[in-house]
Amino acid sequence: MSITDPAGRETIRLVALIGSLRAASVTRVVFDAAVELLPAGVELGEHALGDLPLYNGDVEAAGDPVAVVALKAAVEESDGLILFTPEYNRSIPAVTKNAIDWLSRVPGDSPLSRTVTGVVAATPGRHEVQGVRRHLADSLSGISGHFFDTTLGIGSLNRRSTDGHLTDSEARALLEGWLSDFASYVDRHR
How would you write the pLDDT of the chain (190 residues) with one tens digit per residue? Predict the structure, then answer.
């Protein structure tokens, strides 16, 4: 949901889900840099996933747990969703996949079906996390209301960060450009 600043401009409100529960994860490093590099008029807040139960149809049938209700509300109240995710075994980590499973319920009328969604993947390795980006694009393009198909992968995070901060100018420029493009895409589709 957009808010208007004192000058009458609508702020784009984005929510981030970080697909790693580790406090010092490379995905958190990239998320923290994203908060610094946002274009003017864009806000980005995190919705934590640590309390989210594993998706279970029996649990869903009894009513969404509190953590699921909060997750769905955070996404519904935003203008767009960014999944910041690592790659595990060349695919989607369980934390990321579990959040998608809950957000895709109920099919056809889910928070994801009404949300602009983008993907930023990160790894300490030298590749650009193609596996998770491809798998998420395949999955989200069918369930997201508007999937931003330009995913971003940032590799070699151990070389590109210092003391938990993304310091590499090339990686920061890539992230800043992607955020600008994503914000424009969200603005067109909200």
Answer: 445 554 556 999 999 999 999 999 999 999 999 999 999 999 999 999 999 999 999 999 999 999 999 999 999 999 999 999 999 988 999 999 999 999 999 988 999 999 999 999 999 988 878 999 999 999 999 898 899 999 999 999 999 999 999 999 999 999 999 999 999 999 999 8
For 3-189, CATH number out of 3.40.50.300, 3.40.50.360, 1.25.40.20, 3.40.50.150 equals 3.40.50.360
Strand 10-18 versus strand 3-4 pairing type: antiparallel
- Indicate the pTM of the whole model: 0.94
What the block records as the tokens of 70 is 């909060």
